[in-house]
Amino acid sequence: MSLIEQIDKDKLPQHVAVIMDGNGRWAKEKGKLRVFGHQNGVVAVRDTVEGAVELGIKYLTLYAFSTENWNRPKLEVMALMELLVSTISKETKTLMDNGVRLNAIGNLSSLPEKCRKQLIETIKKTALNTNCTLTLALSYSSRWEITDAAKRIAVKVRDGELKAEEITEDIFGSHLNTAGIPDPELMIRTSGEHRISNYLLWQIAYAELYFTSKLWPDFRRQDLFEAVLDYQKRERRFGMTSEQLN
Ligand code: IPE
Ligand code: IPE
Ligand code: MG
Predict the structure, then answer these.
(1) CA nearest ligand 1 atom 6, residue
(2) Alpha-carbon dihedral angle through residues 94, 96, 101, 107, given to the nearest 10 degrees
């Protein structure tokens, strides 16, 4: 039986979040510049998005550039921004062919104008697609997002639009960039690092974490299927006992 056939379609995670890591090391292994790794990471993105659609995953969120990544060498940051524009432009057809709606989270106003424009254009073009929502986390960090939400809530309380006592987890969540998107049930990180790197801290409270040593440019839909299979073998207890669940 192929991997995808082994997956129980009734127990799919609705939302899979991915930390796409290891592009630089992949390039270094080949004696190339880091940018070469980023360029080849695009192939992995395409295959993963298509795999998610094939499987029926409704939300896929990819960590593409963190707030902290601005501290990288200027040339690498510039190359990543260029790659972002050209990739989104070139891959719009793939998104349309697969019924994928593009979305973005993060401090988008900090992106170069050209990036923002391309992003908005493709988001508009794909807005009516319903197979899967692909969210790119760009200039994103979870602490930035949570702080920003707290600020906006504070303003509402100050202006009398909201009472402090009315703030619930749901209200707080609805002020995050991911408002309207269910929390990820599965979070995948490539490259063998076992850390979260400021990604979706609020949203992954009860996500199953899956780590693979594969470097991102080598990641393919089969790896996504393997992660989903592993996820389906886990018992999600949400604080309860095994006996309570059975
Ligand atoms: C992930 O690969 C891509 C981004 C963070 C933009 P890296 O560039 O972090 O590659 P490594 O982790 O240094 O190998
Ligand atoms: C996390 O990868 C950010 C992205 C994948 C965009 P990093 O390579 O920046 O993470 P650290 O610095 O190794 O934790
Ligand atoms: Mg890295």
Answers:
(1) 65
(2) 60
